[in-house]
Automatic annotation (TrEMBL):
Organism ancestry: Bacteria, Bacillati, Bacillota, Clostridia, Lachnospirales
The protein, known as: ICEBs1 excisionase
Length: 64
């Protein structure tokens, strides 16, 4: 499904980072709190893939 590609779950994040699922939930919680303070709606246990990449890896979307 398309929405699965847009969001990262704790299980996926734990696998990506080579850490525990519990730690992944903590990271998702922090990122979702940041998004909430900016006025965005969030989904518990999931974080938008683009926001995760921007915050963790400094990846910015490049437009031509």
């Amino acid at each position: 499904m398309r929405s699965e590609m847009n969001f990262v779950t704790a299980e996926q994040l734990a696998e990506m980072m080579g850490g525990s699922k519990g730690h992944a939930y903590k990271i998702i919680h922090v990122l979702n709190e940041e998004l909430q303070t900016k006025g965005f709606l969030t989904v518990s246990g999931r974080v938008p893939r683009k926001y995760l990449e921007k915050r963790c890896y400094g990846v910015e979307e490049v437009t031509a």
